[in-house]
Amino acid sequence: MGPCHGRVALITGSSRGLGRVIARKLSNAGADVVLNYRKAGGRSEAQAQALAKELVERGSRAVAIQADISQKDAVSTMFQEIAARYGRLDILVLNAARAPFKTVGELLRRDLLELVENNYLGNVYCMQQALPLMQGRPGHVVFVSSLGSRFALPSYPLGSMKAAMEALVKQWAAELGDRQITVNGVTAGLLKTDSLIVLRQYWPGVERLPATAFVDLEDVASVVLFLCTEASRAIRGQSIVVDNGLTNQLLHPASTG
Amino acid sequence: MAESLISSDQIYREVQKAIADALQISEQKVEPDSSLIRDLAAESLDFIDINFRLEQRFNVGMPRKYFLEHVEELFGEGTAIDQSGHLTEAAVTIWNARLGSVGPQVHAGMPLDDVPALVTPRTLVMIVEEILATCPAACPACGKAAWAVADGGSITCGGCGAHPPLLTGDDVIRRWLEDFRARGGLVSRAS
Questions:
Q1: Contact partners, residue A47, CB within 8 Å, separation at least 6
Q2: DSSP B101-166
Q3: Testing the interface with B: which of A43, A68, A111, A118 to mutate, by most B Cβ within 10 A?
Q4: Do A43 and B81 touch (CB under 8 A)?
Q5: Interface of A with B (CB under 8 A)
Q6: ipTM entry
Q7: Which residues of chain B have pLDDT under 50?
Q8: Could you confirm whether A37 is annotated as catalytic?
Q9: Could you say which of A44, A108, A200 has the minimum Cβ distance to residue B43?
Q10: Quick one: closest CA in B to A39, which residue?
Q11: From CA A18, how far away is CA B41, in angstroms rounded?
Q12: What architecture is domain A8-242?
């Protein structure tokens, strides 16, 4: 029996990339997973439904729910569906993100709203809606952050939202301190996911960095899983860097390629 | 100009392949006027992936921003998109001036969110052609007019092997918009 057996877990933005790997990891650990994707009719819907089907066929409980988390009403509807289906929520992984990739000077008002609505407000809506479903039992919230919260990355205003969320993680962890709910973050390093597709447009040659500069999705998901289990219950309000050591050392060997 | 070094058909075949590879679908599903979003289920990240593949193939810089975003940046926010996220009359005027002959039409009041669905393989071919058309007649490095195409995609100088200094897709759009403004296009229509 896995460490998450009998727990209900929502992973936002879990049709692809890291969210998908986290969902699979939590399912393997015994959780009933609620997958989430933003848009109906696109590839992400097909991918989320396919993953849900695969997990169900393996004997797990899983469902995929469409909701654009930047829309308060859509978040509310998603949580109503979770309440109706499971009557509870034990684990909330805030993974969904969506952002323009522009320099600060290029950001239009619309871009700024997109940043805030998707990556700050949307997460707060989810946290607020999750709380009533998490009452009275040990629960875990994990925010998926990135090194952009602490370091400048090219054309990556999303980093400022990650920083805001890391601060909010602390705030919320403190507020929920006397309950049994932990709130933490995982600050992921360079990932070879869809994010690399974006990054390589603004960071020429990023795909040629040595393999050690990247962190495996599985390794990030493992830390998320740990933060979703009772073994981590004394960790509160921390955002843990999982970057394969990239930012631990200032000097890296020059590439010989 | 080295525009004709790579034919439209050749560019189209590469666009078709880039789309099929990025979306993991068969090339037969991709038609010149397929909406990448509506017909082929592409999402915003897929656009970036498709552009990256075309950049690798043709050694070009595809636009990072949509045409109407450039309009907003150059002419001021609110010119093309109103507060509620809908296209203005000015957006329609400028869109038709640039893209009237390519792909579907836009109309005033149309939600901005519906615009990406207008992107088709034909649009991407046009963008690649426009970028390749910025190739100078002679190589600035060695002075020879001897451009050749390697592997059906990347233009190199037959004299020294250098790549031509092509404008990026964003530069092409900005330059077009500046010309448009110089011609009094938007100003005369709006006033």
A1: A15, A16, A20, A37
A2: TSS----TT-BGGGSGGG--HHHHHHHHHHHHTT--SS-TTT----EEEETTTEEEETTT-PPP-P
A3: A43
A4: no
A5: 39, 41-44, 46, 98, 101-102, 106, 108-110, 194, 197-198, 200-201
A6: 0.79
A7: 1-3, 188-191
A8: no
A9: A44
A10: B43
A11: 21
A12: 3-Layer(aba) Sandwich (3.40)
Amino acid occupying residue A81: E
Q: What's the token pair of residue B38?
A: 């509506």
User: Which amino acid would we find at residue A116?
Assistant: V
**Closest-approach residue (CA) in chain B for A201:** B52
Q: Which of B43, B52, B85 has the CB atom closest to A42's CB atom? A: B43
Q: Do B41 and A39 touch (CB under 8 A)?
A: no
SS3 A37: strand
What are the residue ranges spanned by the domains of chain A? 8-242
Return the structure tokens found at B177. Answer: 């918009």
**A162 belongs to the catalytic site:** yes
Per-residue pLDDT tens over the stretch A215-255: 999 999 999 999 999 999 999 999 999 999 999 998 877 66
CATH code for the domain of B48: 1.10.1200.10
Rg (CA), chain A: 18
Residue of B nearest to A196 (CA): B49
Contacts with B44 from chain A: Cβ below 8 Å: 98
Q: What are the beta bridge partners of residue A145?
A: A187
Select from A43, A102, A197 the Cβ nearest to the Cβ of B42: A43
CB atoms within 10 A of CB A30: 15
Residue type, B65: K
Q: Give B100 to chain A, closest Cα distance, Å.
A: 26
- Note whether A165 and A183 are within 8 A (CB): no
List the one residue out of A180, A72, A88, A173 whose CA is nearest residue A130.
A88
Residue A33 structure tokens: 């997973």
Question: Would you say A4 and A28 are in contact if contact means Cβ atoms under 8 Å apart?
Answer: no
CB-based burial label for B107 (10 Å; 0-12, 13-18, 19+): exposed
- Full domain range(s) for residue B133: 3-190
The pair of three-digit structure tokens given for residue B9, joined into one six-digit string: 């058909």
- A29-45 pLDDT per residue, tens: 999 999 999 999 888 99
Q: Which class for B162: exposed (0-12), middle (13-18), buried (19 or more C-beta within 10 A)?
A: middle
* Beta-carbon separation of B41 and A194 below 8 A: no
B114 touching chain A per CB within 8 A: no
Neighbours of B84 (CB within 10 A): 8
Please tell me the total count of domains within chain B. 1
